[in-house]
Amino acid sequence: MWFRCSLLGARTPAPLPLGLLTSWHRHCCAASSYSAFADPSRVRALVYGNHGDPAKVVELKNLELAAVGGSDIRVRMLAAPINPSDINMIQGNYGLLPKLPAVGGNEGVGQVVAVGSSVTGLKPGDWVIPSNPGLGTWRTEAVFSEEALIKIPSDIPLQSAATLGVNPCTAYRMLVDFEQLQPGDSVIQNASNSGVGQAVIQIAAALGLRTINVVRDRPDIKKLTSRLKDLGAEHVVTEEELRKPEVKNLFKDVPQPRLALNCVGGKSSTELLRHLAPGGTMVTYGGMAKQPVTASVSLLIFKDLKLRGFWLSQWKKNHGPDEFKRLILTLCDLIHQDQLTAPACTEVPLQDYRRALGASMEPFLSSKHILTM
C-alpha cells in the first residue's frame, strides 16, 4: 500500500467514501480504512476527480491523514515539479492512469517525519523520493509504505532532489542503453531546452560525449544558446538551421552522431534521422508536436537506421527496484561532483497551483515550475 488517506472537499465537513480514493493498478496503491485509534490530521493536496484541462479540473482540497502503521512512513513533502507527464495524466492522455479522484504529481522530494515500528531502512529526517509513478506528490504530507520510497542524500540541492527521479533517469538510460558510445562520439537531440534535454547535455559531457542540440527559434535564442552552452552543450542550432545546406559544415569537426534523441516527432524527428550516421539509432521518448515519426524508406534501407522507443516506467518494470536505486545513486554522484544540476526552475507555493499549471502548458518554457509545500 502506498498511502492511507481519504479525500475531503475543502468546504465539505464529511470525508468522501473510501472507495473513491486513488488507486494505481491496485498492486501499487490502494485505499484503506482507518484504524479506530488513528489520530488523523488535515493536510492539503491537489486533487482531480475528472480528466480534462488541468487548470479547470485540479482543486486544492483537504486530505485526512491516517496514523502511521507498522510498515508505514509519514512524509512531509518539500517540493514537487510539474512535468509534461503530469499534465498528460490529468488530461487522460498517458500510458498509465490512476483511478479517480487522484492526487496529482509523480515526482518530488519529501522528508521523513515518522516511521512505523517495522521500518528499518528509513528514519526521521531522511530525504525520500517516489520509487514509482502515481504516488501523488502534490500534497503537503502523506503516509506511504516503505517500498514506495527511495532514500537519497539530503546534502544535494532541493531542486535537484525534487527533479531527480524522472528526467535525469531518462537521459542517462537513453545515453547508455542503445548505442555503445565512446568518449568523443556525438549525440544529436531535439527539445534540448526540456528537462530531459538539459540532463542529456550534462550527462553526455560527464561521459565525454559531444552534443548537437536542436531547439525551436524564439526571441531570446541567444540567451537560450548561452545557457545551454554553460551546461556543456557543444553546438546549439535551431530547427530552421538544421534544414539548411550550411549545416554540413558543423560535421566537419564533429563526428556524425550514432544516437539521436527525439521528443518532438514530425518534421523535427525526420531531420534528426537525416543527420544520423549509418547504422545509428533514433530513440523517441516524447511527441511534443503531436505528429507521427516519419522515416524515409531510403534512410532505413541504405543507412540501416534503427527506430526505438523509451519509457522510464517500462524500464523500471523490466529492471526492478534495486537497479533503479543504483541509477538514482549514480545520478546523485554526478550532482555531488557538480556535473549535474537541476533544470532552470521557478518555485511556486502550492496555493498558487493554477498559475503554475497554466504556465507549465505555455510554449517556449524557460523554466520548470516546482510546487513548494
Automatic annotation (TrEMBL):
Catalytic reaction list: a 2,3-saturated acyl-[ACP] + NADP(+) = a (2E)-enoyl-[ACP] + NADPH + H(+); (2E)-octenoyl-[ACP] + NADPH + H(+) = octanoyl-[ACP] + NADP(+); (2E)-dodecenoyl-[ACP] + NADPH + H(+) = dodecanoyl-[ACP] + NADP(+); (2E)-hexadecenoyl-[ACP] + NADPH + H(+) = hexadecanoyl-[ACP] + NADP(+)
InterPro entries according to UniProt: ADH-like_C (IPR013149), ADH-like_N (IPR013154), ER (IPR020843), GroES-like_sf (IPR011032), Mito_Enoyl-ACP_Reductase (IPR051034), NAD(P)-bd_dom_sf (IPR036291)
EC number(s) recorded for this UniProt protein: 1.3.1.104
Subcellular location: Mitochondrion
Keywords, ordered alphabetically: Fatty acid biosynthesis, Fatty acid metabolism, Lipid biosynthesis, Lipid metabolism, Mitochondrion, NADP, Oxidoreductase, Transit peptide
GO molecular function, one term: enoyl-[acyl-carrier-protein] reductase (NADPH) activity
Signal peptide: none
Residues in Enoyl reductase (ER) domain copies: 60-371
Superkingdom to which the source organism belongs: Eukaryota
Gene Ontology annotations for the cellular component aspect, listed alphabetically: mitochondrion
UniProt cross-references to Pfam families, sorted A to Z: ADH_N (PF08240), ADH_zinc_N (PF00107)
One example of a Gene Ontology biological process annotation: fatty acid biosynthetic process
Gene3D superfamilies per record: Medium-chain alcohol dehydrogenases, catalytic domain, NAD(P)-binding Rossmann-like Domain
Biological role: Catalyzes the NADPH-dependent reduction of trans-2-enoyl thioesters in mitochondrial fatty acid synthesis (fatty acid synthesis type II). Fatty acid chain elongation in mitochondria uses acyl carrier protein (ACP) as an acyl group carrier, but the enzyme accepts both ACP and CoA thioesters as substrates in vitro. Displays a preference for medium-chain over short- and long-chain substrates. May provide the octanoyl chain used for lipoic acid biosynthesis, regulating protein lipoylation and mitochondrial respiratory activity particularly in Purkinje cells.
Protein family: Belongs to the zinc-containing alcohol dehydrogenase family. Quinone oxidoreductase subfamily.
Name assigned to this protein: Enoyl-[acyl-carrier-protein] reductase, mitochondrial
